[in-house]
Write a structure and sequence with these properties.
Elements lengths: L2 E8 L5 E8 L5 E6 L9 H12 L2 E6 L16 H18 L5 E5 L1 H10 L7 E5 L16 H7 L1 E6 L2 E6 H9 L2 H6 L5 E5 L9 H9 L4 E5 L12 H13 L27 E5 L7 E5 L2 E5 L15 H24 L7 E8 L5 E8 L6 H11 L3 H7 L10
Parallel strand pairs: 3-4, 3-5, 5-6, 6-9, 9-10
Antiparallel strand pairs: 1-2, 2-4, 7-8, 11-12, 12-13, 14-15
Helix pairs in contact: 1-8, 2-3, 9-10
Length: 402
């Protein structure tokens, strides 16, 4: 099953940083994920990347940098160097309490922080940046109009991405004086640079700078048409899938787990015929489901307040049960008859009237190559689907507590 736990960890200066570790039942590797400038560990892109990596069997620790999210500290006092040191501190915490991270990922300025920290984390096997600036000073362009006020008063309130933060002179000086080229050159593990040709905030020439500065094995993936914050549908998830595929050869194989001798619930399986549901804490409805050695996420659509649409809803799965069982039943019959089902599919919808009567409408979409006689026989056999019979039969639900 997937677990999601919140922690506080000590940053490099002793400030307590909010952290979240999400882990699959049997992680093949542990990753650190650094969020974008003025964002948080729970920003949409960071959250979606983490959850997709968990689906790829990679456990992910993400932290709120000092003064952001739920971490202690004032953002006004933060520095880029401090963020990089906090990435190292998070790696040390992960090694002490779970397993040393093998993968380091950073988005936007978090990518720059990952590059700056990578050479100081000995356990790493790969580093990935997403939409990262080559020179951290690039970030000052986001508040260029306030630089004079910051220099005069020591700090100033600026609005970045719809969020107002107080930027201190210490951050500006640190961004301007940081030797990122040297830090990138010190990385001795494979590096993946991911960037979009449509990024208007950090243009793609930054990826070129990172790539040229790196002296290690390096790769580049173009995120075609993706915006800087990966806000559009599935962009973050697709990026996570691609980086996981790239990183796989450099990461350990998934460890074998004896499903009969497993004391740790994180690596356990349900017995045959048992389905387990547990809320994940990601929004109000997201629920992890386990059946045997399979797991998936259910949710409600975004039209429901508090929902994030991270998986099918309960009625989707009920409809899926009928559709799947119907397809399987017809498939078994067709194999016995040595018929080719071709592109046959089943769709199921449902509606409930004012009297409370629920109607499931099942449509059998037969491949045109099937004859009328074959279609008639397959339609008749579909009525013998076990789920179909269950829904037509008398149903009792017994509720117990434990």
């Amino acid at each position: 099953m997937t677990t999601s736990e919140n922690f506080t960890i000590a940053g490099h200066s002793g400030i307590q940083l909010a952290a979240r570790l999400e882990s699959p039942a049997n992680p093949s590797a542990y990753a650190l994920l650094a969020h974008c400038f003025t964002c948080s560990k729970d920003s949409p892109a960071t959250s979606r990347i983490a959850k997709q990596l968990v689906q790829e069997d990679i456990a992910v620790l993400r932290i709120d940098f000092a003064g952001l999210g739920h971490s202690e500290g004032n953002f006004e006092d933060s520095t880029f160097s401090g963020d990089a040191q906090d990435v190292v501190a998070a790696a040390e915490w992960l090694e002490e309490h779970y397993q040393a991270p093998q993968l380091l990922i950073g988005h936007s300025l978090g990518g720059a922080a990952a590059l700056a920290a990578a050479a100081d984390i000995d356990s790493l096997r790969a580093v990935v940046t997403i939409a990262a600036p080559y020179d951290p000073e690039h970030v000052t362009g986001l508040f260029a109009g306030a630089l004079d006020d910051i220099a005069e008063d020591g700090s100033a309130s600026v609005k970045i991405g719809g969020k107002t933060v107080c930027v201190g002179q210490g951050l500006v000086d640190d961004l301007r004086g940081f030797d990122q080229k040297e830090r990138i050159a010190a990385i001795d593990v494979p590096l993946l640079v991911m960037h979009s040709n449509a990024d208007e905030l950090v243009d793609i020439h930054n990826a070129q700078g990172i790539y040229r500065a790196a002296r290690t094995v390096k790769s580049f993936i173009m995120l075609d048409g993706v915006d800087h914050l990966l806000n559009k549908d599935k962009q973050a998830q697709h990026a996570a899938q691609m980086l996981a595929g790239w990183a796989r050869p450099y990461l350990p194989d998934t460890p074998d787990v004896d499903r009969d001798d497993c004391a740790d619930e994180r690596y356990s399986y349900t017995k045959e015929g048992v389905v387990e549901a547990r809320l994940t804490g990601d929004g109000d409805f997201a629920t992890e489901l386990r059946a045997g050695n399979h797991r998936w996420i259910a949710d409600e659509p975004k039209s429901v307040p508090g929902a994030k649409d991270t998986g099918p809803n309960p009625y989707d799965m009920l409809q899926a049960s009928l559709a799947t069982c119907t397809a399987m039943t017809m498939g078994m019959y067709a194999r016995r008859k040595k018929w080719d089902m071709g592109d046959t599919k089943v769709t199921v919808t449902h509606e409930r009237d004012k009297q409370g009567m629920t109607t499931f409408t099942r449509v059998l979409h037969f491949d045109p190559a099937l004859s009328n006689e074959q279609q008639e026989k397959l339609t008749a056999i579909s009525e013998k689907c076990p789920v179909h019979k269950t829904l037509h039969g008398e149903i009792h639900i017994a509720t117990e507590t434990s």
